[in-house]
Amino acid sequence: MSFASLDLIDGLLRTLESIGYNTPTPIQKQAIPAILAGRDLLGAAQTGTGKTAAFALPLLQRLTMEGGPAAPNHVRCLVLVPTRELADQVYQSFHSYGFHLPLRSAVAYGGVPMDPQLAKLRKGLDVLVATPGRLLDLHRKGAIEFGQLTALVLDEADRMLDLGFAADLDLLFAVLPAERQTLLFSATMPDPIRAMARQLLRDPLTVQASAPNTAARTVRQMVFTTDKRNKPELFVHLLRKEGWGQVLVFVKTRKGVEQLTALLQGEGISADSIHGDKPQLARIKALKRFKANDVQILVATDVAARGLDIEALPLVVNFDLPTVAEDYVHRIGRTGRAGAEGEAISLICADEVELLRAIEKLTGAVLPRLEEAGFEADHRVPSTGAPSAPAARAPAAKPARGAAKPAKGAAAGTAARPAVKQPAPARDETPRPAGGFGGLKEELPPKEKQRSRGPIYGARAGSPGAGASGGRSGTGASGGQGGKVVVTATRGAKSTARAAGRAASKPGGRGNKR
Ligand code: AMP
User: Fold this and answer.
1) Which residue from 52, 55, 159, 481 has its CB within 8 A of the most atoms of ligand 1, so it is best to mutate?
2) What number does the ligand 1 atom closest to the CA of 89 have?
3) In this structure, which residue's CA is closest to atom 13 in ligand 1?
């Protein structure tokens, strides 16, 4: 199936061709026609499935066809996202997909001066991507009007609730016009999200892209058991021994992030950090440098766990396990994207065993355990209930640092074997060579290749979406063409007719101002 067969207009098709999107992802196939027809949508989809284009393309088309322009301070389409980083990313997507369209878009979030945002709003906007807090501030200042709003998108809605935006969202919903199209995307569907969907969506199409927690099966995962105090040294040791390229490292606390970053920099390793205490401009800069491969290690709290699309990132390290098991899936979902090989390594100590158990329960897999010689845990990490390990050849004395071996208490037959990439579950049963991490690494292509590997859907660089403006082409959507999509259609004919009427109107005639 091609994008043209989804009835997208020329201005969009030209951009898609230039950024190398040849085939719609499963969620795009389902969502684009429904959104073009004016339906509300409930999307159970994580980043990596192509969900941003799934809503951005049809919305851009509708905004173009319905004409404009937005009156001063008015916004025609509002996209709410939980984090500043995601706001930038989603805005870049709208900006690059709408390259040939006469629409004006902008992004607004806190932590940066408000004046440039006020200036953009004064001209009127077709699309505003914003975080809820700053949006409310702008509204309270009287800088934003919703009288012309026809579409609302809530992206990563579960994360917005996790971050405590529920009250801000309620205030916002109260001032938005009731007559509008609403699209709600969420990686998970807990009760509060279902309640929100019931409150906001009218007869929505429900689309589920890829099975929950898919990332957990597309990324090669393993844990190194050690003592807490050994973790910094073990990290530096593995980095050097394994010749790691770029690594995104997750640390539980902001203080921990700063400590590890300082230690790495002290070792002459190029490292930067992002966490909630850092000024937004410093966060943006750190992420930009990491995405551009100007910095090798990015140390982060879970602020970076969701939504970020970092092209062909080969490795995620959990320096600490997350306290919420779902966050593990989001963290490791930063790698193994677009069908590329990805690895996720967790350094765990005895007091994290319950967190590990919860992760294994959620992902339905026992993570292979390894120990690095010289960094073994004095405080043994208890078994998580998996069958006991085959007798690992325990060295008589502590060996020289640098030889990985299956950890004590590792699951039988999984001790030195990675999780496998879908769709080849049979490989799960393949015994891996002994010798631990060194053995595993041989299966991966060299790091340079990993960085340059092409996208699953054939996106290529050198396009509006891939340019220095921060566009995101170059990686495909990891939902995969084989990804599962479940569609529940319940809408009546009325809204479809209403939308068809709107779609028949003429494109607006303004220049391409951004
Ligand atoms: P998302 O799930 O929206 O974060 O998208 C994940 C990645 O897939 C991004 O890098 C997109 O640029 C890319 N992408 C989305 N749709 C397609 C497509 N149809 N073909 C190729 N790449 C795509």
Assistant:
1) 52
2) 4
3) 476
Distances (CA, A) of 210 to 172, 341, 421, 472: 31, 18, 14, 21
Between residues 148 and 489, the one the model is more confident about: 148
The 10s digit of each residue's pLDDT in 225-264 is 999 999 999 999 999 999 999 999 999 999 999 999 999 9
Any ligand 1 atom below 6 A from CB of 105: no
Q: Any long-range contacts for 85-88 (C-beta under 8 Å, 24+ apart)?
A: 85/274, 85/283, 85/284, 85/287, 85/303, 85/304, 85/307, 85/308, 86/155, 86/156, 86/306, 86/307, 86/308, 87/129, 87/130, 87/131, 88/284, 88/470
Say which CATH number the domain at 309 has: 3.40.50.300
pTM higher than the cut 0.70: no
Q: Does one domain contain both 303 and 369?
A: yes
What is the residue with the minimal CA distance to atom 15 of ligand 1?
Answer: 50
Atom of ligand 1 nearest to the CA of 52: 3
Domain contains 510: no
Q: Which atom of ligand 1 is nearest to the CA of 456?
A: 21
Strands 247-250 and 271-274, sheet pairing: unpaired
Reported as a single tens digit per residue, the pLDDT across 137-150 is: 999 999 999 999 99
Domain enclosing residue 65, as ranges: 4-202+464-501
Strand order in the sheet with 315-318: 271-274, 297-300, 247-250, 315-318, 343-348, 220-225, 369-372, 404-406
